[in-house]
């Protein structure tokens, strides 16, 4: 579903190369974890997948279902079923969360040539999804992410993901700022999205999240490259031994 080939990318503003020859393949049905020390380029990779203009791809390619997405803008990527939950979710003042969700769902339907959702149907879908994530209905009336706690922001991201049912989900440090109860709720939400025709990429610093979302593959990112890939046991090794051994072996 996703094939990243020898990707090189730099910060558009100053030309600093952050992604330096990254290779990664994620199949439909797979949950892939990307781990790596702070500053290794994990969030940058998620921004590049989203199509943010702050980064320039200078070499390599990103294939999604066999086609390059490099020329697509962020909304075209979203319409094709790519969803990114960022480490720092964007605040949207003045737009109630409910309204935001309605627009997002209808945009997606429009892109697929489907009719707009009828309001009662929309409300039913949102209420059910919110309840499953233990989101207080009052939160849906507030502007998206404005004044939300860390945990509320993460739940709001998973709520969007549930409603938009993307094919490729990328979650950047969804565990940061979550207490153990919220972590379980969010993980259950992600696990419910597992399906044979969907791929999930979980970016995380710690192994803890991977106790709840058990990955099929684990990839270690360091200095803009995948330096080691393995199965779920690789995450346990990292927890026990840290990144140093793997980094030295790669060097
Ligand atoms: P991670 O998510 O793995 O912690 P990031 O992708 O956030 O790492 O950052 C990788 C490196 O790139 C860091 O050194 C960071 O400071 C730098 N970086 C990323 N984006 C920018 C930017 N827009 N401007 C300046 N530096 C950036
Ligand atoms: Mg970081
Ligand atoms: Mg990051």
UniProtKB/TrEMBL annotation:
Pfam families, sorted: ABC_tran
Keywords carried by this UniProt record: ATP-binding, Nucleotide-binding
Residues in ABC transporter domain copies: 2-248
CDD domains: ABC_FeS_Assembly
Superkingdom assignment: Bacteria
InterPro entries referenced in this protein's UniProt entry, alphabetically: AAA+_ATPase, ABC_transporter-like_ATP-bd, FeS-cluster_ATPase_SufC, P-loop_NTPase
Record flagged with keyword ATP-binding: yes
Signal peptide: none
Record family assignment: Belongs to the ABC transporter superfamily. Ycf16 family.
The protein's name: Fe-S cluster assembly ATPase SufC
Naturally occurring in which organism (per UniProt): Hoeflea ulvae
């Amino acid at each position: 579903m996703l094939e990243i080939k020898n990707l090189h990318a730099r910060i558009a503003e100053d030309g600093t190369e952050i992604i330096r020859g990254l290779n990664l393949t994620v199949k439909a049905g797979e949950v892939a974890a990307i781990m790596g020390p702070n500053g290794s380029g994990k969030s940058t990779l998620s921004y590049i997948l989203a199509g943010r203009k702050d980064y320039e791809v200078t070499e390599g390619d990103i294939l999604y279902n066999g086609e390059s997405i490099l020329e697509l803008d962020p909304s075209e990527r979203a319409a094709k079923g790519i969803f990114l939950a960022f480490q720092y979710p964007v605040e949207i003042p003045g737009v109630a969360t409910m309204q935001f969700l309605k627009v997002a769902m209808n945009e997606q339907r429009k892109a697929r040539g489907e009719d707009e959702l009828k309001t009662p149907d929309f409300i039913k879908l949102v209420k059910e999804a919110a309840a499953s994530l233990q989101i207080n209905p009052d939160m849906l009336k507030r502007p998206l992410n404005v004044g939300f706690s860390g945990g509320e922001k993460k739940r709001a991201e998973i709520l969007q993901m549930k409603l938009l049912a993307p094919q490729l989900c990328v979650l950047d440090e969804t565990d940061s700022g979550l207490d153990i109860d919220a972590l379980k709720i969010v993980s259950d939400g992600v696990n419910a999205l597992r399906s044979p025709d969907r791929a999930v990429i979980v970016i995380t610093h710690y192994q803890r999240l991977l106790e709840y979302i058990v990955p099929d593959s684990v990839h270690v990112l360091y200095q803009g490259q995948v330096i080691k890939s393995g199965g779920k046991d690789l995450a346990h090794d990292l927890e026990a031994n840290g990144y140093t051994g793997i980094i030295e072996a790669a060097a």
